Amino acid sequence: MSKVLKSFYVMMYILFLMAFIFLGFELFMINVIPNKYLFIIVGIMVLFILLISLGFKFIKRKSFKIFLVLLEFILSIISVISSLYIYRTNTFFDSVKDIDSETDIYYVIVEKDSSYKKIEDLNNKNIGIFMENDKAINELEKEIEFSKVEIENVLQITSNFNSFDGIFLNSAYYDLICDENDDFNDKVRIIKKITITNESDLSSDGVDVVKDSFNILISGIDTGGPIGVTSRSDVNIVMTINPKTHEILLTHIPRDFYVYLHGITSSKDKLTHAGIYGVDMTLKTVEDLLDIDIDYYIRVNFTTVEKMVDAIGGVDVVSDQAFSEYGYSFKKGINHLDGENALMFSRIRHVLPGGDRDRGRHQEAVITAIFNKITTSEVLLKDYNKLLSSLSDTFQTNLKTSDFKKIIKHQIDGMYSWNINSISVDGTSSKDYCYSLGQSAYVMIPDDRTVDKAHKYISGIIDGKKYNEI
Predict the structure, then answer these.
(1) Alpha helices in 96-133 (DSSP H)
(2) Quick check: 374 and 390 in contact, CB under 8 A?
(3) Higher per-residue pLDDT: 228 or 159
(4) In 96-203, where does DSSP find H-type helix?
(5) CB atoms < 10 A from the CB of 43, how many?
(6) Under a CB-based contact definition with an 8 Å cutoff, are residues 332 and 348 in contact?
(7) Radius of gyration over every alpha carbon of the chain, rounded to an integer in angstroms
(8) Could you give the CA distance from residue 109 to residue 172 in angstroms, rounded to a whole number?
(9) Which DSSP symbol is given to 96?
(10) Whether pLDDT at 1 is above 50
(11) Percentage of the residues of the chain whose pLDDT score is greater than 90
């Protein structure tokens, strides 16, 4: 019997040591555990190793030896499970994409009742080019020969489509035109898609995220699928973080805010249209508007919200009003929402009395509900892996992985309590000419007092003031 017991002990001891070594390696690799806690964890691991090895050798009682074998087994299981959680977390960090490029999709569109069915049918034809991109044009020229006809504005596309055999334009512009002209999508066909990659010139260097104050632009684009595709920026929130005073300020900017796009002073446009020209344009336009520097940005899309909410089993969101649109209905009070409904709750604005202002509050309610859910023990223990999987490849940022880990490590080290506040810039509803549309559309004329207030509060938090001191 003792030989059998000893054999079990040796087998479990080898498994136990391997599990402990793997756990120690993963703890070292993830680099989010402060040194003081890491030393404690390693110390406890060493004590268990000594207890098990010396206990089995010097204590003769059979019951104690059986206990040690069971302890080896239990600790091995705990170590393996912990290692897998840490490994999964580290893999997630590695999957987070630094934004150094964006994907542009270009369409070749023709009239729906035309005889053109495939791209070869447009060989040696006249193709209207809107917002020319050399890389995209070069790719199209590999497919066919054609005569280029420059299109100056969107109005030429919607009112004089029959002047061209086909039109070549960015998919973001196509979506914009469809949004502003209800019947446009029914009048045309897409016969070719061309995908190109554009490099970003934004850098995230120069900020110590646990010592220096910084601003992050949270940009939510109005599309699903691959996160790198350029599209309108429907959600624009500046998050101001001061790691010394532990103050966070969220500044919401309505999508239809009427602004000058960065570098374009000929006419104003909606802020949401800045996203058509890339996340760089959105960031720089917001910098110009608020007269601030933005160090980082995080970009999310429809897929991010849907996948995250579904991964955690839905969320409970409180609505201060009942409303319905697009076949979706929400009641006053608590609504349990899956990913699809949470997304629509965040997007609907036309039927709301406060329009985009109410939508902004709904977006904050969904964010709050998600935060409340993911901090529960149920999600952390049961749905943790699904949550990380849902986030993989669904957002982009120029915040480096090392900075993410540095922030987490700093928070664990101090267990700081953060003071979070939010403000919004505001304005008056109007209709005015929009640069990207080439025609008039609904806009929000900024109230300069609210813009100045936002600048004052952001600057105050950056400079180390408390929210209630500004």
Answers:
(1) none
(2) no
(3) 159
(4) 134-141, 154-159, 171-180, 184-187
(5) 10
(6) no
(7) 28
(8) 13
(9) P
(10) no
(11) 25
Q: How confident is the model at residue 416 (pLDDT cuts 50, 70, 90)?
A: confident
Does the CA dihedral 343-387-272-158 come out positive or negative? negative
What the block records as the tokens of 232 is 């309108």
- Of the listed ranges 3-7, 10-14, 408-412, the one predicted with least confidence: 3-7
DSSP secondary structure, 272-326, as one string: GGGGGG-HHHHHHHHHHHHT----EEEEE-HHHHHHHHHHTT-EEEEESS-EEET
Burial class of residue 48, CB neighbours in 10 A (0-12, 13-18, 19+): middle
Tokens representing 11? 């087998």
Task: Please write the tens of the pLDDT for every residue from 31-60.
Answer: 878 888 888 888 888 888 888 888 777 777
Q: Are strands 166-170 and 101-111 parallel, antiparallel or unpaired?
A: antiparallel
The gap from C-alpha 91 to its chain's centroid, in whole angstroms, comes to: 17
| Number of CB atoms found within 10 A of residue 174's CB | 21
What integer pLDDT is reported at residue 172 of this predicted model?
A: 85
Q: How far apart are CA 398 and CA 386, in angstroms?
A: 24
Tell which phi-psi region holds residue 333, choosing left (phi > 0), alpha (psi between -120 and 50) or beta: left
**CA pair distance 240, 453, nearest whole angstrom:** 14
Q: Write the CA distances from 457 to 168, 202, 445, 462, integer angstroms.
A: 44, 25, 21, 9
Angle value at C-alpha 30, between 27 and 35, nearest 5 degrees = 60
- The CA-based angle 158-163-166, given to 5 degrees, is 80
pLDDT value of residue 205? 64
